[in-house]
Every structure is written in C-alpha cells, then in structure tokens.
Design a protein that fits this description.
This protein has 193 residues and is of the alpha+beta class. It contains 4 helices and 10 strands. Helix 1 crosses helix 2. It is globular, with a radius of gyration of 16 Å.
C-alpha cells in the first residue's frame, strides 16, 4: 500500500489508500511518499552528504553519472529540487523505513543537465540496496505517482549495456526497448503511462 502526505503551504492532506484524494502537481509539492519498505521524500541540504556517499562513488555509479565532487552532487540535487517546484516531480531521497538510512535517490524527473528526452524514470542506489528489490519498489511507486498526480503520458529511461539488472527491471516494468544512444553509451527504453 502506498500512502501520501502532500503539503501546500502549511496545510497537509493525507490519503491512506489510492484514490482517496485526487491531487494535482501544478502547485502541490510532494513532501513524503511511503511504500512497504521505503520513505520517499524531497531532498534537504542535510541529506546531501549521505547522497554523495554513493552518488560520488565511482564503483557504485559505474553504469551512470558519478558526481565528481560534493559541490557537484549538491548542485545536481538542488537543481532537481528547483525542477520539483516547476514540474511537480523530481528524484526523491530514498530511505529504508525500518532504519531511516538513505539508500538511494530516484523517481521521475526532467533532466536539467541533459534536456530533450522528456520525463524520465531514474534510480541511483547505494550498493547496500542492490539485489533486494528496492529499485523495483521505487520504480513502481514512481509510476503510480506519475499516473495519479501528473499529466505525464510517456517516460524514457536509460540503462548502460552492461547493467543487466537495470535492463531487466525496466523490461519487467513494461518499458519497451527504443534503441541505443551512442553519444550516451546507453540503451533507451520508453513507457506509456
């Protein structure tokens, strides 16, 4: 079960089951989304050191973008947060509900650093979260959020050719292969919401 806490100014609306509240993202910003095992929330400055621990780890991010410095990570996270205010969606900080540990960053977003692909699904996980179904749980929550709270009609996702688990995840979610993007060295996938 997914439930949402959404805030508009100082007022909070909670929905304990899907469809209880019809929410729009034009002026409403997601504060927190919960799944069975995960807390998904907008990033705060205090989250950036924990995010940089894996977003800046070359081994952990070998199939995707690795932030070269703490400042680069901070910039990327904060620019995406600005886009959350504009678009109504951006990557969430992913925490384990059981421990409150930050184990990932991801969700729906328009990439401000590589624009032109439209809304994307992305997930960046700490090595401790690999192979436990966290990516699937995050991706399912993002797709549900996109269907219920945005006007997004289609998504793009990318996976490095050597990242077999990511490719399997996208195909398992129903994404369709859409070719190889040589300039990015990534396979492109598309999905109709």
């Amino acid at each position: 079960m997914i439930w949402k806490t959404l805030a508009r100014r100082s007022r909070t609306v909670q929905a304990t089951s899907p469809g209880t509240a019809h929410l729009h993202t034009d002026r409403l910003h997601t504060d927190r989304l919960h799944t069975d095992r995960l807390d998904l929330s907008a990033a705060r400055l205090a989250d950036i050191p924990d995010l940089y621990a894996f977003l800046g780890d070359r081994n952990a991010m070998r199939f995707t973008q690795c932030d070269e410095s703490f400042a680069a990570c901070r910039k990327r996270v904060l620019v995406h947060e600005w886009f959350r205010r504009r678009d109504g969606f951006a990557p969430w900080v992913v925490r384990l509900r059981e421990t409150n540990d930050i184990i990932g960053w991801g969700g729906l977003y328009n990439d401000p650093f590589d624009p032109g692909w439209g809304p994307e699904l992305g997930y960046y996980l700490a090595p401790m979260a690999w192979g436990k179904g966290i990516g699937r749980e995050l991706a399912n929550a993002a797709l549900k959020y996109g269907r219920e709270n945005t006007s997004i009609k289609s998504l793009t996702a990318f996976a490095h050719p050597d990242n077999v688990p990511s490719r399997k995840l996208l195909l398992g979610l129903g994404f369709e292969p859409a070719g190889f993007v040589k300039a990015m060295n990534r396979n492109r996938f598309t999905f109709l919401l």
